[in-house]
Amino acid sequence: MINDLKKSYGHLFEDALLDEIVEVGTYKEIPEGFKMMEIGEYVKSMPLLISGAIKVLREDSEGDELLLYYLERGETCSLTMTCCLGQKKSEIRAIAETDATLIMIPVAKMEEWTAKYKSWRNFVFESYHNRINELLTTLDSIAFYQMDERLVKYLKEKVRVNDSNIIKSTHQEIAYDLYTSRVVISRLLKKLEQLGKIELNRNVIKIISL
């Protein structure tokens, strides 16, 4: 675990902190599609992502989802940290976008490390900053972009996060992530296919040129 940890976080944390993470952390491997966190659950540990990607979603009163952002290697979830420190129930859902490995840190260590390690404090503040920027980007996308622009942006991000031009998602799943209807997504995907930008197959989208 220490080698994987150093590759992802060695440039951020001093050796003493890395040693403590190894001592108290729990190493986990999770498969694509695994639900790591559910809305309404109490959060007892915080993830440090070693590999893969996690998508973080919000749910409205009707049960519809909206994709907030992705977590990737070397990152953590600031919303999870907020729940941990406040001992509050989770207001997000976290699902593995790809196969992933991570280290779960007990909530009790978060405040201790904030006082003890400057590198941990900087990491926490930087995580909050990055997540706020991503949330603002999501808000701007909803407020200022047309759905066809949002869809193209979403597909490009999927390609980047998965490191593949093959996207394995149903039209309904994309609609959930973008907080719209399947009919709208299907129509826009068909338009992109007619323009030669993508190729549609059953539950698979091949990105040609976006």
Cα separation of the termini = 38 Å
Q: What is the number of beta strands?
A: 10
SSE sequence, one letter per element: HHEEEEEHEEHHHEHHEE
* Sequence stretches where pLDDT stays below 50 over 5 or more residues: none
| Helix fraction bin | 40-55%
**Which sheet architecture does the biggest sheet show?**
4 strands, antiparallel
- CATH architecture of the largest domain, by name, is Sandwich
Going across the major beta sheet, what is the strand order? 2-6-4-5
Task: Please report the number of helical segments.
Answer: 8
Description:
- It holds the Pfam family cNMP_binding.
- This protein is an alpha+beta fold and about 210 residues long.
- The protein has two domains: about 1-145, Jelly Rolls (Sandwich), CATH 2.60.120; about 145-205, Arc Repressor Mutant, subunit A, CATH 1.10.10.10.
- The chain is built from eight helices and ten strands.
- The strands form three sheets. The chain has a four-stranded antiparallel beta sheet. It has a three-stranded antiparallel beta sheet with strand order 1-7-3.
- A hairpin with a 5-residue loop joins strand 4 and strand 5 (about 65-70).
Compose a concise summary of this entry.
With 210 residues, this protein is an alpha+beta fold. The protein has two domains: 2-143, Jelly Rolls; 146-207, Orthogonal Bundle (Arc Repressor Mutant, subunit A), CATH 1.10.10. Helices cover 48% and strands 24% of the residues.
Task: Please outline the helices and strands.
Layout: H1 2-9, H2 15-24, E1 26-30, E2 35-37, E3 45-51, E4 53-59, E5 65-72, H3 78-86, E6 93-96, E7 100-106, H4 108-116, H5 118-144, H6 147-162, E8 166-167, H7 171-178, H8 182-194, E9 198-201, E10 204-207
